[in-house]
Amino acid sequence: MRYPQPHQLLDAAAAESGHTDFGPGDFREGLTVLLDSLERDGDLDPATDAAVVGDLRRRLVNRLQVEAYYREHPEVEDVIVEGPVDINGLPRTGTTALADMLSLDPQFRCLRGWEQHRPVPPPVAGGEADDPRRQAFIRMHEQRPAAQAAMHIFEVDATMEDTEILGMAFRGQQMTLPVAGYRSWWRRADLTEAYAYHRRVVKLLGSKSPPSLWLFKAPHHKFHLEALANAYPDVRFVMTHRDPAKVVPSYTSLVSTIFPPAAGERDLCALGREVSVHLREGMQRAIAERARVGEDRFFDVHHHELVADPRGTVRRVYEWLGLELKPDVAQTIFDWQDANAVGAKGAHRYTADQFGLSVDEIRSDYDFYIRHFDVAKED
């Protein structure tokens, strides 16, 4: 077999860390499914194997270090987690822009990418700027191709997708690898234990770096809203919306640049079909689950409103949340808006056709979504 077995990765992580307690929650099933999907579905160049396996081992080491830290610092159990405010929806609908703007407000504690990558030790207030994990994260993103920078805004201290924390539970969406079989399993998986573990890591990260009101952002949260609400009973959701005829090919284009290099020519049409089905099923689940979670806990933001009136949109979000938007914070957010207007970092060019899709077909498949949220169609 090309990839290691789960027990081999577990043994390697234990040897590297010197610990053996991987903590609560079932992560082994997800790890097994992921490795199996890599074997069956993967199209990766063999030169990527060391990096791919290394990431999985790192997440297991992170789990071991989290439990060791809790044993040494039992007071972390008592850390307060307020909120969170959770931004989700279909990808490519303004989730990143909205999250980046709210991340500029110091009343929010952001879930930053660099601290997720290696959560132990937790960052210390006043020392984040010089944290070597942060500096390494900046260097990594400085190496991104210009085309990718045009597709996706990067702010080092903004709240980011919890890819790494859910990845430590091996219940992440894993849209960074060509593992269609794993994603099919994940869409229907129970993430109750995964989000309970998520809260455990969040408490650790916030233990030395306030404030306690958390801001999350992840389009993939729409797949498992009830599990997230079980872990965070006070969560409130901001859901963003956009014409799926724009969303699906745009996201497929982005994903195709995130996957590691393929051994041969990657089948972009197959990827387009998978992404379309994946996101459609996610939105079907979101509509059903938000009705059970409670519609009063959701605030809907439409992409065309965010683009046409970003200042007004942000003010409406704050008003709904019942939070104060202080004048100096508002000005910082508005300055960011001016500097990051659509196209400021270059144009992201794509078509539905290049991924074997058509505008009419996508809108037909997502008609339930368009009608449910009165989504505007774009030219």
From TrEMBL:
GO terms for molecular function: transferase activity. InterPro entries: P-loop_NTPase (IPR027417), Stf3_sulfotransferase (IPR052736). Keywords: Transferase. It holds the Pfam family Sulfotransfer_3. It comes from the Bacteria. This is Sulfotransferase. It comes from Mycolicibacterium pulveris.
